[in-house]
User: Fold this.
Amino acid sequence: MAEEKTRGRRIAVLAALSAAVLAVSTIAVVAGNSLSAASHDAAAPVAAENLDPGDSDVLSEAQAKARDRALRQAENARIRGMLGPDVSPEDFVPDEPTEPITTDGRDIDCRHLKCVALTFDDGPGAQTDRLLRMLADAGALATWFPLGEVVADSPDRLRAIAEAGHEIGNHSWSHPQLTASSNGQIETQINRTARLIERLLGTRPTLVRPPYGAISKRVAAELGRLNAPAVLWDVDPLDWKYRNSTRVYRSVMSQVQPGSIVLLHDVHPTTVAAVPRILKSLANRGYTFVTVSELFGNELTPGQIYLDRAEAYRPD
Assistant:
């Protein structure tokens, strides 16, 4: 009887999480419009059906991050309200690690190939499945840096990313600025997320992308103690600020070079809309799409900070 109750409870939660995707899309448009109106008199809403709206949703970084976090918190609160005060979405992640998800290793030497590492932060989100199809069509691998609190609410999306062969890193639990956090807080943010991902995938992520790219000697040393390299980037199209697929595409193409790490956010429809053009144009330029670990020959040192590997490229 207890087992049937538990099964019924899990089914109800999965249904609630599925409905949440539609709810978040609606909330996002409303919240985005409100903040845009406050920050830009001529702002126009970014709608799902308009994936190239122009520079209509131009926010400061603080405004954009505050909006995205508010949306996550609102949806998390809604889901927890359905579950009850003593239940968290984390409770529905298996207590025992699943069988590790493994992918075939690739023999890639980015000292001689034009490699580029596409990376996606803050998800997984409602656009992730669509993005996975785009990457599969292009035969491209990428690296995700998910937030723990988002993974807890959508574990199946993270498994889909890993099962497609992509690399999974760690972007903290709730996106705090690590340079303003104590060492104990940093440890909690990183370890809580790593443990959850390990429960889901059977393997523990090591790569860490500090939220906001905020890093210092102290934070790097603490990440080193946690056996984590710090992965930043050298190509940033500011897709969180400019919700314009054409602008994102052009910005990436104007900055990329062999050995680049590209920062993107798959939680934004306009970013995902830019990906096919990015993939096609980079492939036409002879680029190979690799994970961050592949870019560095699977030899990243805990506590070190990585921006790109441009200096190692030596074409034949």
User: Anything to note?
Assistant: The first helix runs from residue 2 to 39.
